[in-house]
Backbone:
C-alpha cells in the first residue's frame, strides 16, 4: 500500500452487481448523472465534493471465463484507479448473489492485495419486494454473511442511506487505513526486460527524478531517455478542459479523446473522464455551459476544473460554432480563460463544431490561440491527439492553475495625462449621474441605456484624452444575482484597461437611506478593495466654494463619516460650469497616483474579490461547525 499525506481525492472502485446498479451508485456518489450504459472497460469519472475531489471508477461485469480475462480486468482497473483506490464498494443484490459472484469478487480483491478487504464495504441494493425480516434473512445467507464478515461487518443498505452518510462512511474507511490507498505492485514491469546495465541506469535515473522533481526529467540525456518506451514525446499525462455551449458536442469530443468512453451529455457542474493514449493517462474535464452562468459560478467551476485534473490542465479546448459566436461570447470566454492566468491562450485550441464562414470575433479568437484549431467533423482521434500533444510540448509540459495570484490585480503602471481614462458613475436613482456624465464629456445628447436596469457606456475627448464614462444603475435592494451580473458587466465595459475610479454622485444635502445603502452595496459587491478606487462627487447649482456649501459638508458629522468610508476623497463641483471639469480630472489622477500598487479595477480584480469572500465564508462556516461540535460534546 502507498500512503497519502492528505486525501485531497477520494477514489472509489465499484465492483459487483449489474451495470445499472453500479451506474446508480456512481451517479449518487457524484451527485450528477455521469454514468450511463454498460461499460466495456473501467470508466473513471470525477466530481467536486466540498473543497476536495471524489473519483468513482465503474467496472464492467465480473465475468472471467479465462485467466487472461482476469489479468486484463485487473490491469484495466489499476490504470483507471491510479495511483490506487481508497475504497472498494461491493454492490450486491442478496437474492442474486451466488457463489460464482463471491468467487469473482475474491479473485479481484485477492489479486490487489491480501489487505483489500480492509478497504472494502458491502452496499446492499434493494430488492423488488422486501418483506419483514429480510435483513436477518440475507445476513444468514452463507456466501453473503462470509463476505460481510471479511469486510469487518462494514455494510449499508442503499435505499436507506443519504449522500452525506455514505461519504462519511467511505471517509471513515480511509481514516481506519491511515489515509493509505491500495497499490498493485505486481503490475510493474519486470526487471528482466532490460539488461542489468540498463536496469541500473534506469534505477539511477528514477531515483534522480524522485529526489529532484519532474524538472530533472528534462535534463536526462537523450541517449539514456530513449531506453524507455513511449518516451518520444516525454509527456506523462494529458489534462484537458473543454469549454463550449453544446453539451452534445462536448460529450462527443470527450468520447473521442478518451477513446470511446460513454459520456452522459448534460451536467450542471464540471465532471472529469479518464482514458489512455499511447501509454499516457488522459483526463478530460467537461464543463457545463459557462456562457449562461454567473460570475460566482465562473470562479467556482474554474476551481473545480483544477481540482478535477491536479495539479492543473495543460490544454484548454474551446468549442465554437462560428455562425453563433458573438463578440459578447468572445469577451466572456476571454474572462473565463483569464482566471487561469496570462498564459491561458498559449495552452488553448479552438474546436470548430460546424463548417460555416468565420466572423470577426472568431478570427480574433483564433489569432489569440496562435491559429491552433481542429474541426470536429474530421473525427480522427490521432489527429486531434497529435495537436494536443504539440500544445503540451510547446509549453514544456507546464500547466495552468487558479490561485489568488492568478486573479489578483495588476501592478500599477504609469498613468500619464494622455492615457485613456475609465470612470464609473454610481448613485441612487435621481442622484444626477447622467447630468454628471454630460458635464464630464461636454455632451448633451448622450444615448440612454436600452433598459433602465443596465449599465451604459459613453465616450468622448476631454482635455486631450479619451475618457469613458459608464453609468451604473442603482444596485441597492436589487436581487443578489442581478447585482452581481450588472456589476461584472459594468467592469467588463471598461476592459481591457479596467475601471480607474468609481465616482459616487451625490447632490449636496442630507444623506438618504438610499445613499447609504448604495455605497454599502457597492462595497459589498466589489469587495473591500473598491474603497481604494472610490471618491464622492458632490454636485451643487451654485459656487462650490461658497461658505454655506463648504461648512455644510465639513460640519455635518454624518457626511464626514460617509466620506471617510471612501478614504476621505471627495470633490464639490457645479457640474453646469464646464471650467470646473479639469478640477475633477485632477482629483481623479491624484486618486490613481496615490495608490501604491493598483492602477485599475479589472474583471480579474472582481473575480479575486469574490474568491476571497468565498474563502472567508468557508473558513467562518468551518469554525462555526467546529464550535458547534465542541459545544455538543460538552453537553
Residues:
Amino acid at each position: 500500500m502507498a500512503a497519502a499525506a492528505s486525501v485531497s481525492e477520494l477514489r472509489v472502485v465499484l465492483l459487483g452487481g449489474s451495470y445499472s446498479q453500479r451506474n446508480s451508485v456512481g451517479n449518487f456518489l457524484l451527485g450528477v448523472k455521469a454514468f450511463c450504459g454498460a461499460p466495456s472497460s473501467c470508466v473513471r469519472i470525477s466530481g467536486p465534493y466540498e473543497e476536495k475531489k471524489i473519483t468513482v471508477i465503474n467496472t464492467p461485469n465480473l465475468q472471467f471465463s479465462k485467466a487472461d480475462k482476469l489479468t486484463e480486468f485487473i490491469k484495466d482497473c489499476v490504470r483507471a484507479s491510479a495511483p490506487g483506490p481508497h475504497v472498494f464498494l461491493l454492490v450486491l443484490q442478496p437474492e442474486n448473489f451466488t457463489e460464482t459472484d463471491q468467487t469473482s469478487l475474491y479473485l479481484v480483491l485477492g489479486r490487489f492485495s491480501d489487505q483489500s478487504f480492509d478497504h472494502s464495504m458491502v452496499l446492499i441494493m434493494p430488492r423488488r419486494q422486501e418483506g419483514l425480516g429480510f435483513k436477518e434473512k440475507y445476513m444468514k445467507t452463507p456466501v453473503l454473511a462470509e463476505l460481510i464478515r471479511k469486510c469487518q461487518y462494514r455494510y449499508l443498505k442503499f435505499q436507506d442511506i443519504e449522500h452525506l452518510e455514505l461519504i462519511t462512511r467511505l471517509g471513515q474507511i480511509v481514516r481506519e487505513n491511515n489515509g493509505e490507498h491500495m497499490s498493485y505492485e505486481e503490475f510493474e514491469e519486470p526487471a528482466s526486460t532490460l539488461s542489468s546495465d540498463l536496469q541500473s541506469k534506469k534505477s539511477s535515473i528514477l531515483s534522480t527524478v524522485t529526489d529532484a522533481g519532474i524538472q530533472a526529467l528534462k535534463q536526462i540525456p537523450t541517449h539514456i531517455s530513449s531506453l524507455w518506451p513511449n518516451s518520444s514525446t516525454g509527456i506523462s499525462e494529458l489534462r484537458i478542459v473543454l469549454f463550449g455551449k453544446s453539451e452534445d458536442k462536448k460529450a462527443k469530443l470527450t468520447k473521442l479523446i478518451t477513446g470511446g468512453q460513454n459520456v452522459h451529455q448534460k451536467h450542471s457542474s464540471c465532471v472529469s473522464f479518464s482514458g489512455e493514449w499511447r501509454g499516457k493517462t488522459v483526463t478530460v474535464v467537461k464543463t457545463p455551459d459557462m456562457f449562461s452562468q454567473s460570475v460566482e459560478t465562473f470562479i467556482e467551476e474554474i476551481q473545480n476544473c483544477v481540482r478535477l485534473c491536479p495539479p492543473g490542465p495543460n490544454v484548454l479546448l474551446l468549442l465554437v460554432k462560428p455562425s453563433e459566436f458573438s463578440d459578447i461570447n468572445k469577451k466572456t470566454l476571454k474572462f473565463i480563460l483569464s482566471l487561469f492566468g496570462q498564459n491561458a491562450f498559449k495552452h488553448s485550441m479552438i474546436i470548430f463544431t460546424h463548417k460555416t464562414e468565420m466572423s470577426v470575433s472568431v478570427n480574433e479568437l483564433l489569432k489569440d490561440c496562435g491559429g491552433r484549431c481542429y474541426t470536429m467533423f474530421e473525427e480522427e482521434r490521432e489527429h486531434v491527439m497529435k495537436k494536443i500533444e504539440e500544445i503540451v510540448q510547446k509549453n514544456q509540459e507546464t500547466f495552468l492553475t487558479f490561485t489568488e495570484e492568478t486573479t489578483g490585480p495588476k501592478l500599477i503602471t504609469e498613468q500619464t495625462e494622455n492615457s485613456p481614462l475609465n470612470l464609473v458613475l454610481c448613485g441612487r436613482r435621481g442622484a444626477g449621474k447622467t447630468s454628471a456624465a454630460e458635464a464630464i464629456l461636454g455632451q448633451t445628447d448622450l444615448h440612454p441605456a436600452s433598459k433602465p436596469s443596465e449599465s451604459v457606456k459613453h465616450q468622448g475627448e476631454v482635455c486631450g484624452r479619451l475618457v469613458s464614462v459608464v453609468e451604473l444603475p442603482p444596485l441597492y435592494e436589487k436581487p443578489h444575482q442581478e447585482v452581481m451580473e450588472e456589476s461584472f458587466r459594468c467592469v467588463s465595459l471598461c476592459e481591457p484597461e479596467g475601471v480607474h475610479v468609481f465616482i459616487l454622485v451625490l447632490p449636496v444635502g442630507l444623506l438618504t437611506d438610499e445613499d447609504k445603502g448604495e455605497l454599502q452595496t457597492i462595497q459589498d459587491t466589489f469587495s473591500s478593495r473598491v474603497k481604494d478606487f472610490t471618491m464622492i462627487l458632490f454636485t451643487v447649482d451654485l459656487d462650490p466654494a461658497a461658505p454655506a456649501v463648504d461648512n455644510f459638508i465639513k460640519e455635518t458629522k454624518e457626511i464626514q463619516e460617509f466620506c471617510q468610508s471612501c478614504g476621505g476623497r471627495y470633490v464639490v463641483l457645479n457640474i453646469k460650469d464646464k471650467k470646473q471639469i479639469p478640477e475633477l480630472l485632477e482629483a481623479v489622477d491624484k486618486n490613481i497616483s496615490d495608490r501604491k500598487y493598483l492602477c485599475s479595477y479589472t474583471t480579474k480584480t472582481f473575480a479575486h474579490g469574490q474568491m476571497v469572500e468565498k474563502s472567508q465564508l468557508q473558513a467562518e462556516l468551518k469554525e462555526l461547525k467546529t464550535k458547534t461540535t465542541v459545544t455538543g460534546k460538552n453537553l
Observations:
- The chain is about 40% helix and 15% strand.
- Residues 421-603 form a domain with the Rossmann fold fold (CATH 3.40.50.300).
- The CA atoms of residues 432 and 602 lie 25 Å apart.
